[in-house]
Amino acid sequence: MVKIMILSDRDILEYVESGKLFIEPFNMDFVGPCSYDVTLGDEFIVYNDEVYDLKEKLNHEKFKIKNSIMVCPLYHKLDDDIIDYYKETYKVDTVVDGGLLGTTNEYIKLSNDVCAQYQGRSSFGRVFLQSHQTAGWIDAGFMGKITLEIVAYDKPVILYKNQRIGQLIFTKTLSPANVGYCDRVSSKYGGQDSVMPSLICKELNALKK
Predict the structure, then answer these.
(1) Domain count, the chain
(2) What is the pTM for the complete model shown?
(3) From CA 209, how far away is CA 206, in angstroms rounded?
(4) Of these residues, 14, 24, 50, 149, which one is catalytic?
(5) First CA to last CA across the chain, in angstroms?
(6) Could you read off the pLDDT of 155-181 as tens digits, one per residue?
(7) Measured between alpha carbons, how far is residue 103 from residues 15, 34, 44, 159 in Å?
């Protein structure tokens, strides 16, 4: 039977000390029994395309917030008056509807024998806000910040810069990967230090050659 080794708090600290795991900034208070909490950065992306044609480079807008952002369910009927009302009433910097991309403050580096999984906090699940869709897996050998796929499903949710948004669960592989994520030619997001849009068009365009 194959046994999976999830790193405990003791293991996480040992791996950080040894350099097998790098987290910057690192906060001792964010170390859980078998996870590490990560925080919401101030950079976001919204797409401007009416249709996501994945063979094309997607049009997007990147922006920063000073303090907070209100995420509304898609088709929340946001006209300019509603947006102004929300900003004035709830003192938020920006109001968006539909999905958007965010990023963690934390930049991580994984050795070739450590992989990770991002999970949104249960407290956000309880207000029907999801901070990742299908991209929770982080391969061994990855380095960079974590891009978050944020969607509110019920009512508008206000998120604040630097608040804890999710957690990383680290797993020790049975043997080191021969080629880590950032060393693969096909890897698209290695070393990202900001929120990044989908780059799947690179895959599809490569198939044409």
Answers:
(1) 1
(2) 0.90
(3) 6
(4) 149
(5) 43
(6) 999 999 999 999 999 999 988 989 888
(7) 24, 22, 7, 13
For the chain, the farthest-separated pair of C-alpha atoms sits apart, in whole angstroms, at 60
Does the annotation list 122 as a binding residue?
yes
Domain that holds residue 37: 5-207
pLDDT tens digits along 47-102? 998 898 888 888 999 999 999 999 999 888 888 999 999 999 999 999 999 999 99
Contact between 166 and 132 under an 8 Å Cβ cutoff? The reply is: yes
Residue 168 known to bind ligand: no
184 in a labelled binding site: no
Q: Are 47 and 197 in contact (CB under 8 A)?
A: yes
Q: Is 14 a catalytic residue?
A: no
Looking up residue 151, the CATH number of its domain turns out to be 2.70.40.10
- Residue 148 marked in a binding site: yes
Helices (H), 69-135: 80-90, 122-125
**Amino acid present at 18:** S
